[in-house]
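Progress report, Aim 2. The chain analyzed during this reporting quarter is listed below.
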Amino acid sequence: MRIIVCGLIAQYPLGGVAWDYLQYVVGLHRLGHDVYYFEDTGNWPFNPAEDGVSKGCEFNVSYLSRLMERFGLGDRWAYRFPYQDQWFGMAQSLRHEIVESADLLFNVSGCLEYPNQYRRSAKLIYIDSDPVFTQLKILKGNGSMVRNLRQHDVHFSFGEAISNGTSNLPPTEFEWHPTRQPILLDEWARSPERFGYTTVMNWTSYKDIEHEGVIYGQKDEQFEAFISLPSAIPELAFQIALNEGKTRRSPKVRLRGQGWDVLDPSDVCADLDSYRDFLASSRGEWSVAKGGYVTGRSGWFSCRSACYLAAGRPVVVQSTGFEDFVPTGNGVLTFTDFNGARDAIKRMEMDYEAHSEAARHVAETHFASDRVLSEMLERCDAAA
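Predicted structure tokens for the chain:
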């Protein structure tokens, strides 16, 4: 099939973001499909060198071009810079031809500014990578979100419990099909260990959402219950590549005082390769989830955690209800409170090599790009 994938690779030229969307594009290409990457968000791009929204897009376009070329897709991308509606990448005539003849368009993270502009022959597919918060916007009557979603033919969500109706959220008007992050397994391999238990995280991403008296928060409020964890296991190293986000008071001093080694993401995982190396050379991942994912019992599983698993690095992560969909106990351990987090790490250490082998096995059986993407395509076909 001819497939367009829309994402945020140029918008946020950071290592982890690039992997999130590239694994869709390259994975579909490796399955034999005629795949193109379009980025048409309507937003001015972020430039790490300028530490904010860029005045232009030269850096971002060059970054995207190099990545596409690296994976043999150098002539299969298009990027729109909102100033004077400037397009870069493939020729306009080819871009129009692709839009007119595409079978499917994957709007990953709902980042496409005007989905209806792509409604020609293509079936539009929405992939919700931020479950609970997406559904809360619908429940609270966010008109722009509802209109956007109605422009799509099939809706997927990383919130697998939302899809089967076992989350803590009431249903919405949309049918959510379950999915998870596709991983290019041959791109991930275990590297010599240089770090301890690590994660890459935003302290806060956006404001909490209140609905019917319940607060659905971010990672910062979840982290508070576990802030003294390194002190409870002093023989192990705990490191965070931390983006503070929009917070009034920096948490770095407090975290370091509790034994966390706080790293700058721009130093350890800024691009595609350094991000992969940081994960693959960690002993494993320890991480909380956004409060909304936990409170909503969404069944969400982190794209980043899936990459750790593919690199043969086990994970100890906060429960969101994903245990019903991803096997736990070997390679993936969960916790809900401080004692559970401490005990899970100690169990991991008792048979670390077995957990490492199990981690890769979970990636192969539940996150391999060919499996995840083939299942998505089958669901798209069934929803015709």
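The first strand starts at residue 2 and ends at 6. The mean pLDDT is 95. These observations will guide the mutagenesis work planned for the next reporting period.
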